[in-house]
Amino acid sequence: MKRQEKTFFVANLTEELKSASALVLINYLGLSVKMQQDLKARLKEVGASFTVVKNTLFALAGKAAKIPEETLKDTVLQGPLALIITESDPIAPLYVLAKFAKEHETPQLKVGIIEGTFQDKEDLTELSKLLSKNTLYSQVIGTIANPMYGLVSILEANLQKLIYIIQKYRTKKV
């Protein structure tokens, strides 16, 4: 990459980092090209992107985007580095990565930033076991709505009993 291309790349990456709801750094060592394409396709389905990036360029973009310093440590920025970025559901890419890692035993999570909070490898692994936000929202709504359905059923049953009694009373009078 020429110097001018690097500057342009860092500027674009900085903007992506600023607008991301989540970013995850992974060690992609051991991923064949075909596996990378498969992972990219899976991540695209959940609104995330997979980018292989040089450590130095990521460090420059990270400093410009003012991401947490823990992410830019030398211990993190060693070896092959790929970046997973999403602007939508921050947990969905982690779920995809965990499922992919189970199938292929690679890639390895390094660190990440989920909704502005630094997460280490263990935290990311725990978060990958959670359900997506939409699923959790639907479960909460279902839990809240369930008693209302019960109340409606009880009231409806009482109305049916009342109608039955009125019909029986009407048939006796006639």
From TrEMBL:
<dbReference type="InterPro" id="IPR043141">
    <property type="entry name" value="Ribosomal_uL10-like_sf"/>
</dbReference>
<dbReference type="GO" id="GO:1990904">
    <property type="term" value="C:ribonucleoprotein complex"/>
</dbReference>
<dbReference type="InterPro" id="IPR022973">
    <property type="entry name" value="Ribosomal_uL10_bac"/>
</dbReference>
<keyword id="KW-0689">Ribosomal protein</keyword>
<dbReference type="GO" id="GO:0006412">
    <property type="term" value="P:translation"/>
</dbReference>
<keyword id="KW-0694">RNA-binding</keyword>
<dbReference type="GO" id="GO:0005840">
    <property type="term" value="C:ribosome"/>
</dbReference>
<dbReference type="Pfam" id="PF00466">
    <property type="entry name" value="Ribosomal_L10"/>
</dbReference>
<protein>
    <recommendedName>
        <fullName>Large ribosomal subunit protein uL10</fullName>
    </recommendedName>
</protein>
<dbReference type="InterPro" id="IPR001790">
    <property type="entry name" value="Ribosomal_uL10"/>
</dbReference>
<comment type="subunit">
    <text>Part of the ribosomal stalk of the 50S ribosomal subunit. The N-terminus interacts with L11 and the large rRNA to form the base of the stalk. The C-terminus forms an elongated spine to which L12 dimers bind in a sequential fashion forming a multimeric L10(L12)X complex.</text>
</comment>
<comment type="similarity">
    <text>Belongs to the universal ribosomal protein uL10 family.</text>
</comment>
<dbReference type="GO" id="GO:0070180">
    <property type="term" value="F:large ribosomal subunit rRNA binding"/>
</dbReference>
<dbReference type="InterPro" id="IPR047865">
    <property type="entry name" value="Ribosomal_uL10_bac_type"/>
</dbReference>
<keyword id="KW-0699">rRNA-binding</keyword>
<comment type="function">
    <text>Forms part of the ribosomal stalk, playing a central role in the interaction of the ribosome with GTP-bound translation factors.</text>
</comment>
<keyword id="KW-0687">Ribonucleoprotein</keyword>
